[in-house]
Amino acid sequence: QVQLVESGGGSVQAGGSLRLSCVASGSTFTINAMGWYRQAPGKERELVASVTSGGTINYADSVKGRFTISRDNAKNTVYLQMNSLKPEDTAVYYCNAHLVVLVRPYVYWGQGIQVTVSS
What we know:
The strands form two sheets. Strands 2, 4, 5, 6, 9, 10 and 11 form a seven-stranded mixed beta sheet that branches. The chain is elongated, with a radius of gyration of 14 Å. Helix content is about 0%, strand content about 60%. Strand 7 and strand 8 (about 75-80) form a beta hairpin. The N and C termini lie far apart (about 40 Å). By secondary structure, the chain is mainly β. The mean pLDDT is about 95.
């Protein structure tokens, strides 16, 4: 069994910054990709940013230039540095990981962490 544990959320004023972290732990696994999604009230879950094991990074247009995703492979951790936050960034943020466990692929989700940006 694999667990994704998120941390770093909270409340901040517009223009502020937050850094989210997500650690994958548990069974022996290989990480193919990790990323962050978010879901605002009344809206569908959307991709924020992702990074593959090969280093390919993808961002939602709405966060380009403001958010930075990074990985520490040795710690099985992915980070999301969020700068110049806007009220529309308010959402529950979910860590996502594409893993291989005993040669089988799995997709795991974290429990979600609240980010609130006030104007």
